[in-house]
């Protein structure tokens, strides 16, 4: 990433796309806002604080509130440095062990396995995120092209319905769908009817298929739900842009590519940055319910591992250690994503 | 969130008007047909799980165990719903769930949007540090026990406050709202200020109406989250039957239906008397009925919010 | 019920202000000591871990408690799925209800200091039913560790037996086989069963009947779904004639050893591997969720499997309600040459479950009295059978019977909410076995009830084998060893971790061994044994052995 001169032309956090160098300005520019190229560094002075007292009044009490409810309880992380036994009473009444729990997790008897579950978590998560984001954008664009309002509404409502089924039910449906035709496996049935395969595939016995199965199942469940935000973003695009484009003879795909997508780009970017931090916090149920001994090498994720070796064994410290690990990774990832977005002159989180 | 501006696209399309006008209708017909077919297919795929769950919920429990039910019940029965709806606590739990959801949505939208407004203001000097503090909370969880002790020390155990006070700000929604607000042209706030409006009035009377679509979405997110939550009931309010919620009660019922089939090893309860007949529920059938009862009320929220998904709001405001 | 006896015991509750005259109702259900009376109402807060549901507001037993004892129970019910989280915060908060009912988490409550030591109260002699209940097993029931004072803290809820153990259904582990297979084979002799004969029966039948109601017939299903891996891992010990001790076999000198990597295991998985190759074992076995597993059994297509009876009860119920008795199962006990089958064991008491009284309780005597009264025979009958004339009848011979309608009611979740105190009963100490009048503790253990619900098909199956109950198909149950069972020994964190590693090694390797090419069997088996060698098995075995020695010394 080079520090392109472009950077000086737009605000670092502004939602505008990077402007093209050349400009034959038949485009409607009446909404163009020319913002200062870069926010000037502002000194915090009493005068400024006083001038902004109302904004401060809006923000500071809520900030205090957030610190009380989210940051104060973080003292609970002390458990990570203890041999925590609930029976010993409160959290300060425990035996301190330093970084022993961390060392144990990364290099102990299960160290190799922990590294593998981190890889599985990343694999499942990145695939789910990519497939899910692309799917949601495509569906949003397609829905946006529907001119029949009732049909559009109905489709929106139908596609978001699977979100309301629990993962247990979805996992169970997926498991049936992927089974042998005699057990109701319609995917195998379809593949065989189409002549793609001769013999049914036992999908859930193949380690190589599992990440795809997780991504596919999540797509099925969350596609419509993930589309909602993009649809809301599309509503805010100025219709006159489309009108002007039509006057210019732009077709459907050109408008999608050149108006709709850039219009929702800030949303896409912000969601991607936020999600980048959740990459280690995957869905727990799918690997738990669909995983089995034959495919555990690709199925087991951090959360499943923590359940087996943490909660189920009463080893709370391990669970907290894993939580801290995920937080640290999340902050690194989000920070990097945010910085990358800033370099590319995209919307940023902070 | 969304730019109202896309200069380069227009420039490009203006530069190369390749598409020929008279092909427009044909293309449109083809596209619409393809698009509609695709969406209908997709819709069928998405509708299937819910219809399947509905069919199982309307099926005799003993028969449902055999599996293989599609979108139509094989042996029709209302027994599963009878069990769920006859549950003593369910109506009160339903009312509590609605009340809780309404209060959480209202407080959340109010406080989150107010903060988002402040953080969307470029000149606000503490914008970045405050945003950072909120963003970080997306990525860590302090753990159940410290959270519980906090609620306890604040005297909010077994109280309605435990449902909404800890959740008046959602960092995720804050970012969504702030991003959207940042895309609102500054001229609007500037002209408001010239008219003598203070920050509160600008937020409430100028910005909020412009944010309707995104407020609808955030409202939906919060409503669904609050409706589906049961951990707060378990941890903070399970000691007071008046504060129980629908999801929590359904969750317990589900456990007891599982139990009815499976505890025989120990207690030998009820196991021998099956041959006597009588329609019985089974975990799989009851789980489906429970899912429907829990999901349908919240599924109905989205259609009501859709009317806010109207484009061009902002334009009208700028022009007017 | 009319108020009868009037006693003037003003010392019953000094906290309740000016004492009213105590009115004790007539009848068996009243508290003759006058501690719990309608004239002096008591509210007990009750925390229960159970999957059973809370009573409805109109519950008739709730009303009976109020009328007879003046007791109102305020329930806080937490299901087993949620209890880990709830117990953690409850201990952190340090406030507990009067009565604390636990399942399997006694240790955490105990070590967290939530429970009251009950020995001194018991010694007062005011609680005769409880005293009798714990008399013979006090050592087994008491805590003997070092975290808190040793002593009695809870009253175990199940399997402290009075009189004879009755009941005709078998809920334990077995190799199950469909009745139609036996019928087709001309009711073969089931004694001295071996794996070879078991699979031969299945193979012969499958050969003749490749389809069952349109679906392919499945020879043998391996139960391996998450949390139920024991369906796949437990058979070697049973085949070797050892009772269910979990992952270990305990020899005559009380020395425990894992068997997963031993020859008895290898022999079993070799047979499964061969049968898998022969197409007898379901190819889908290892990918089925538990729901799918039950569904498959409920279609009637599965000829046999290893499982515990309670686990697939839903499938059995479904088949019976559809009138398809020929698809239900008979338990078989294959063993290796020279081994005596020990599949069925005597029901064991789980001393980690039951009611205790919390340290926060302001009325421990009343709470204790309540538990004591609930354990009396009259109340036990009310709790387990219901109200005489409404929920059951008493015959001329004094035996309790039920009509079909009463049986159906007892299966109905809605009815039970209004007519049973299921959640409470689940955790209360029980009069398992028989009452002094000869009736069984619960309808399901009552022999007459068992026979009344047998279908003609099942009667015929029993006649063919000259048996009267399903239990008689199993081995006679010898006295359990003193330490038994090893699977509920409380382990240290390290030992638990090793145990989990062993389970994981099984789950990851056994399916590959079973489903692999028979030519690769030796190689896959060796890889599995190598995996186990890398695990510090000794930590686990030592912990089990220490537990056994501790029990031998203290029980």
UniProtKB/TrEMBL annotation, chain A:
Domain of life: Bacteria
Keyword Electron transport listed: no
Stored InterPro entries: MetI-like, MetI-like_sf, UgpAE/MalFG_permease
UniProt membrane topology term: Multi-pass membrane protein
GO cellular component, one term: plasma membrane
Pfam families, sorted: BPD_transp_1 (PF00528)
Protein name: Sugar ABC transporter permease
Organism: Cellulomonas uda
Lineage: Bacteria, Bacillati, Actinomycetota, Actinomycetes, Micrococcales
TrEMBL record, chain B:
Transmembrane stretches, start-end: 29-51, 90-118, 130-151, 163-181, 202-227, 284-305
Stored PROSITE patterns: ABC_TM1
Bilayer topology term: Multi-pass membrane protein
Compartment(s): Cell membrane
A GO-annotated cellular component: plasma membrane
One Gene Ontology term from the biological process aspect of the record: transmembrane transport
One Pfam family it belongs to: BPD_transp_1
Alphabetically ordered keywords of this record: Cell membrane, Membrane, Transmembrane, Transmembrane helix, Transport
Residue span, ABC transmembrane type-1 domain: 94-305
Record-stated family: Belongs to the binding-protein-dependent transport system permease family.
PANTHER family: ABC TRANSPORTER PERMEASE PROTEIN MG189-RELATED-RELATED, POLYGALACTURONAN_RHAMNOGALACTURONAN TRANSPORT SYSTEM PERMEASE PROTEIN YTCP
Record's protein name: Sugar ABC transporter permease
Organism: Cellulomonas uda
UniProtKB/TrEMBL annotation, chain C:
Region described as Disordered: spans on this chain: 1-22
Naturally occurring in which organism (per UniProt): Cellulomonas uda
Name of the protein this chain belongs to: ABC transporter substrate-binding protein
Stretches assigned to coiled coil: none
